[in-house]
């Protein structure tokens, strides 16, 4: 099997395995392969490169979440967030802005490299995870394989048989996907909120389905029994889980580091990429301290460059390189094809007798699957609202089949996104159509108090699922090789064309597995 060649065998004089120990200090720190970012795409790339015997450097702008704070915990809870919660903010910016219109959710905090970032554009904010593990540190763990027919529609050039036969199963196994025991689900107080939402869906004649997870349900049951520290049952999720969650630092990244071939640098942000005259890649980085100050700038070189900075991070590096002229041959479609996976959040008010429970697990396990409805395809997850008191709210994250797409570009020194309010309105109309039916069938109404003032029913100005910007088969070939340049790869959510109909991390992981399997076999010296 031909494998990725190390830089030395490529004859790239700047790239030498011994360079780190050379007597004469070199201006550039070299590795055969560099991976930018340690989310799903980056973690898969790092593991598979390392297993192929290729020394790999992973550069991650966030911190490693492996050290306990003064309270003995690595992460803080959603109920009492502190500086660990958000990426350099003076106040938290939680998705649910208010309760009973009161500003009781967010807290003033000390700016710090916290785990959740909210990247604000004109009409859309994008939540992303920061740290070793990327989005896996903050997400809801829902591990959903997309409907095969929709996957095939979105990725017409990808062999769906191979994906569903090989790469989705490989991804699910590595991620540690498991499902809730239906009998426990039916009996535990912790999922009363979901059973109440299911009842409303069933009264409407809608289909509901269990959603798999990477949260360890065996651990959750011990939490419920009181034999282990609580995490999902202790209001931990968007600011990290101290227990129970199989985040990437416990799966792919642990395996990658275990090979001995991976070096991981944290708090080091890649700011620019360019190509040297000998064909090697050059990366400029800035190392951040805990105040966000750049304390050191560095250059790294590599033969093979894998971009796993996420839809925003990867696309920013590429559009910036094209705009500044360092990578002029990038395809015109780099930056295009971006979408928020049709995300809309909303709440419904239940009748007094339809309680949701004071105890709520933070990990969703069920969705309303109306994707097959040709008039209005929507998949809506039943989300928790764990306030610790009965609140009668059924909360949902709707994923709508919104065909609108936007473009990311680099203007005046920063990333901008062309997404408009009118494009969000398309998602809202679809969510409203579904939930108007549910309200009509149950004689219920929407909640008006959850997304700030003035009363906003549909939260359409933020998303959790940024997708696209470097779409597979358009900005790259069918395996994530960036068009116009050799030995440059995208392995993350940038590849997904704006919408995938379900929560995206299983798809991102499986596509990255497919890319790595191909690249490690085929890509040899130019
Ligand atoms: P991602 O995981 O975002 O990782 C990118 C990494 O690269 C991050 O660690 C960045 O800090 C780092 N980075 C970026 N730029 C640079 C740079 N220039 N230099 C160095 N490092 C850089 O990318 N998805 C699901 O499937 N199920 C869920 O239940 C779910 N819930 C979610 C809940 C929340 C609150 C959020 C924010 C997301 C959720 N998602 C969920 C989305 C999912 O986490 C997301 O699609 C993936 O994390 C994207 O994976 P990537 O590999 O693209």
UniProtKB/TrEMBL annotation:
Q: Which UniProt keywords apply?
A: Cholesterol metabolism, FAD, Flavoprotein, Isomerase, Lipid metabolism, Oxidoreductase, Steroid metabolism, Sterol metabolism
Note the superkingdom of the native organism. Bacteria
Q: Which SUPFAM superfamilies would you find in this protein's record?
A: FAD-linked reductases, C-terminal domain (SSF54373), FAD/NAD(P)-binding domain (SSF51905)
* Pfam families from the UniProt entry: FAD_binding_2, GMC_oxred_C, GMC_oxred_C_1st, GMC_oxred_N
| EC nos | 1.1.3.6, 5.3.3.1
The protein's required cofactor(s) are namely: FAD
Per the UniProt entry, what is one GO biological process? cholesterol metabolic process
Q: Which GO terms describe its molecular function?
A: cholesterol oxidase activity; flavin adenine dinucleotide binding; steroid Delta-isomerase activity
The Glucose-methanol-choline oxidoreductase N-terminal domain covers 129-152
Under the heading PANTHER family, the entry gives: CHOLESTEROL OXIDASE (PTHR47470), FAD-DEPENDENT OXIDOREDUCTASE 2 FAD BINDING DOMAIN-CONTAINING PROTEIN (PTHR47470:SF1)
Task: Return the similarity comment.
Answer: Belongs to the GMC oxidoreductase family.
- Full protein name: Cholesterol oxidase
Lineage of this protein's species?
A: Bacteria, Bacillati, Actinomycetota, Actinomycetes, Kitasatosporales
């Amino acid at each position: 099997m031909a494998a990725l060649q190390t830089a030395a065998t490529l004859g790239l004089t700047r790239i030498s395995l011994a360079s780190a120990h050379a007597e004469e200090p070199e201006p550039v720190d070299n590795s055969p392969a560099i991976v930018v970012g340690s989310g799903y795409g980056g973690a898969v790339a790092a593991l598979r490169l390392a297993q192929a015997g290729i020394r790999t450097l992973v550069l991650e702008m966030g911190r490693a979440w492996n050290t306990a704070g003064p309270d003995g915990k690595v992460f803080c809870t959603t109920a009492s967030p502190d500086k660990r919660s958000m990426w350099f903010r003076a106040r938290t910016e939680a998705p649910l802005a208010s309760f009973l219109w009161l500003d009781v959710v967010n807290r003033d905090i000390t700016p710090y490299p916290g785990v959740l970032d909210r990247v604000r554009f004109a009409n859309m904010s994008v939540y992303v995870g920061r740290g070793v593990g990327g989005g896996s540190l903050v997400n809801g763990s829902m591990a959903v394989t997309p409907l095969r027919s929709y996957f095939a529609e979105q990725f017409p050039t990808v062999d769906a048989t191979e994906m569903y036969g090989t790469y989705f199963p490989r991804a699910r196994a590595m991620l540690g996907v498991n499902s809730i025991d239906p009998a426990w689900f039916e009996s535990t107080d912790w999922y009363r909120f979901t059973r109440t939402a299911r009842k409303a869906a069933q009264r409407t004649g809608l289909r509901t389905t269990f959603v798999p997870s990477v949260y360890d349900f065996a651990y959750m049951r011990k939490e419920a029994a009181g034999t282990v520290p609580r995490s999902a049952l202790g209001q931990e999720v968007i600011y990290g889980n101290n227990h129970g969650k199989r985040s990437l630092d416990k799966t792919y990244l642990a395996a990658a580091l275990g090979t001995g071939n991976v070096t991981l640098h944290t708090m080091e942000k890649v700011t620019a990429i360019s190509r040297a005259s000998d064909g090697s890649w050059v990366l400029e980085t800035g190392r951040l301290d805990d105040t966000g100050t750049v304390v050191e700038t560095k250059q790294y070189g590599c033969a093979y460059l894998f971009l796993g900075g996420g839809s925003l991070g990867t696309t920013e590096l590429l559009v910036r390189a094209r705009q500044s002229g360092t990578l002029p041959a990038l395809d015109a479609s780099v930056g295009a094809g971006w979408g928020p996976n049709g995300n809309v959040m909303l709440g419904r008010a239940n009748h007094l007798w339809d309680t949701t429970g004071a105890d709520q697990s933070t990990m969703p396990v069920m969705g309303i699957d109306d994707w097959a409805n040709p008039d209005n395809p929507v998949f809506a997850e039943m989300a928790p609202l764990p306030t610790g008191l009965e609140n009668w709210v059924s909360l949902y994250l709707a994923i709508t089949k919104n065909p609108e797409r936007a473009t990311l570009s680099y203007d005046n020194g920063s990333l901008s996104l062309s997404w408009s309010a009118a494009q969000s309105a398309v998602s809202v109309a679809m969510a409203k159509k579904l939930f108007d039916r549910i309200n009509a069938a149950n004689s219920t109404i929407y909640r008006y108090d959850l997304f700030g003032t003035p009363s906003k029913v549909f939260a359409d100005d933020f998303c959790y699922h940024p997708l696209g910007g470097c779409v597979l088969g358009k900005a790259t070939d069918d395996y994530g090789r960036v068009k116009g340049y050799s030995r440059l790869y995208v392995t993350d959510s940038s590849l997904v064309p704006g919408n995938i109909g379900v929560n995206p991390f299983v798809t991102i992981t499986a596509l990255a597995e497919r890319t790595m399997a191909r690249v490690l076999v085929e890509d040899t010296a130019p």
